[in-house]
Amino acid sequence: MNKDGILLLLKKYEEGNCTPEEEAIIESWYNQQARKNNINPIQEDLSETKDLMWEMIGQQLPAPKRMSIAYWRIAAAAVILMVVGAGFYFYTSNHNQEFPQELKLSQANDIAPGGNKAYLVLADGKRIALTDAKNGTLAQQSGITITKKADGQLIYTISEQKSGNPSGFNTIETPNGGQYQVSLPDGTTVWLNAASSLKYPVSFANTNQRKVELNGEAYFEVAKDKTKPFRVMSKGQEVEVLGTHFNVNSYANEQAVRTTLFEGSVKVSNSGDQKILKPGQQSAAQNAGLTVAAANLQEVLAWKNGYFDFNDEEIQSVMRKISRWYNVDIEFNGRITAERFNGGISRYKNISQVLSLLSSTGAVHFKVEGRRIIVMP
């Protein structure tokens, strides 16, 4: 594709008139240019990214004197939009792909991304589909009122006039292709990733601790209470805090339980071993013990912020994340690449666009059969 063709595609992209295949082509082209110019659109400062993009456009498109000012600005706006708005880029360390002529992944029976979907299981066994539930009061339990806000968040309100000791546990569950945000009775806010569940007391009022059980992945912003430590139990691991921000990834099909600290301090315990984390550190709990290392905070929090961020990941790890978010089964066929993938893309793109970008690296290809994704060399 020549430079004039690129310019026309950029204009269509800015106007929102691209087909999914054309969007994938533009984003793949940007992959290559960003890699050549050592640009990471998520890590770079916004103003610095814009300056770099202006320079990149000047190198890759016809000179300004041979273009109208309007077209030059359209090209710049379109590329900057890709960088700072969506942050699309994929590459592997050993593939130097030029602008692709075409991407042949079929758009038939495309699969939409996940969204705010969850189920609330009350202490009395009642199961509420939160996706379908109307905004407003969902239930009342011994002085606890559960309300669904317009943005989908669950809020617990404790009535000061109500006496008694609310007991029992509630559980919030997200399916594959779902995520949800809940504010617990103590004011702690939790974001649940796909295929996760959180079990917690109806009330923390008459307890000496705030203990919850997590399966899957969640980000916690714990309300401060020095008299009642907050404990997260997950896959044999315990995290204890008084008030802080942290992420726990405890999926059963991942090799380790990873706890990442963003603010405050936490104590992580596993099989008799204990570690105190400082902000920016991540612990990994495995059969071999508990280790601590510096964390890539951007990568850890990508799911909560609405995008995938792959940092030197093998294709098996990449596909596990895709499987959970798009609610698809993954099958590997043939010799699987040893390449490690780097890149990011919005979690709100259809699966065909994500797979097209991955396949544009040349390291892997896909076939979609219903809700089954076949990964091929």
TrEMBL record:
FecR protein domain segment(s): 171-267
Regions that span the bilayer: 70-91
Keyword Phosphoprotein attributed: no
GO molecular function: sigma factor antagonist activity
Name under which the protein is recorded: FecR family protein
Origin species: Pedobacter caeni
Gene3D superfamilies, per database record: 2.60.120.1440, 3.55.50.30
Keyword Membrane part of the UniProt annotation: yes
Record key words, sorted: Membrane, Transmembrane, Transmembrane helix
Annotated ranges, domain Protein FecR C-terminal: 307-375
